[in-house]
Amino acid sequence: MSCLKCLKYTMCVVNLIFFICGAAIFGLGIYLMTTSKFAALLPSLQAMSIANTLFITGIIITCVSFLGFLGALKENRCLLISFFTLLFILMLVELAVACALLIFEKQIDKYITTDLKDSLEDSVRNRNKNNNTKDDWDFVHVAFDCCGINNSSDWISGIPESCCMSKQCRQNDTKQYWPMGCYTKLKDTFENNLLNAGIGVIVVCVIEVLGMCFSMTLFCHISRSGLQYK
Questions:
Q1: What pLDDT, on the 0 to 100 scale, is given for residue 128?
Q2: How high does pLDDT run on average in the chain?
């Protein structure tokens, strides 16, 4: 009985931590929506922008963790089995996405590059206007110390000042601009940290499996004890 109580309160604490993290991610998503960063970098995938992704991820984490917390605290079989089912579905979706990224890696890379080129061309056409695409590219250049998609030569009609390594650059002097493109830098960073990313995915899957095991253990204990739905 003491082990089950320990399991119950462990589930409560862990799910409370995830609920707080989910709320923070949800708030960050809303903040990025209001500031409009990265929203126009991928024109055909604006619905899947970083802000929207964080917003949806935050909602999912808070809802699932709330079910787990309340189900464990109240020892409610209905909430516990719902928590188990949602975790199982989430794990299947994550595995499916990971497999799709591995299988269609080249097609996805080509699609993203094409979309970024369209976004960059749109920024060039609207250089003198108050344009979200221009603002997003400037923000990315400054934040990640990069220029263009592959390098500064992507900016055919004039390299923006946000690409400068110093406060001011002479136009078309490529040595004064960041040498690496933003998408190239992102890919290189991901490839250099592929092991860490893999470990992160494994840790998430282990946490989900443990959550399912804990919730099912409590569910079976409540069923054997003859408790009804509360």
A1: 55
A2: 81
- C-beta of residue 65 within 8 angstroms of C-beta of residue 22: yes
> Which amino acid is residue 88, in one-letter code?
F
Contact 80, 72 (CB under 8 A): yes
Please state, in angstroms and rounded to a whole number, the distance separating the CA atoms of residues 207 and 210: 5
Tell me if 75 sits within 8 A of 230, measured CB to CB: yes
Rounded CA-CA distance 171/151 in Å is 15
Q: Which residue has the higher pLDDT, 34 or 39?
A: 34
Q: Is 187 helix (H, G, I), strand (E, B) or coil?
A: helix
The DSSP secondary structure of 88-150, one letter per residue, reads HHHHHHHHHHHHHHHHTHHHHHHHHHHHHHHHHHHHHHTTTS--HHHHHHHHHHHHHT--SSS
pLDDT score of 195 more than 70: yes
Give the integer Cα–Cα distance in Å for 122 and 113.
14
Q: Enumerate the β-bridge partners of residue 177.
A: 164
Q: Which two tokens stand for residue 206?
A: 């282990």
Which residues 6+ apart lie within 8 Å of 35 measured at CB? none
Q: Tell me: the pLDDT tens digits for 112-158?
A: 888 888 888 777 776 655 555 566 788 888 888 888 888 888 887 67
pLDDT of residue 67: 93
Which residues are registered as beta bridge partners of 164?
A: 177
Please count the other Cβ atoms lying within 10 Å of the Cβ belonging to residue 168: 7
Left, alpha or beta for 212 (phi > 0: left; psi -120 to 50: alpha)?
Answer: alpha
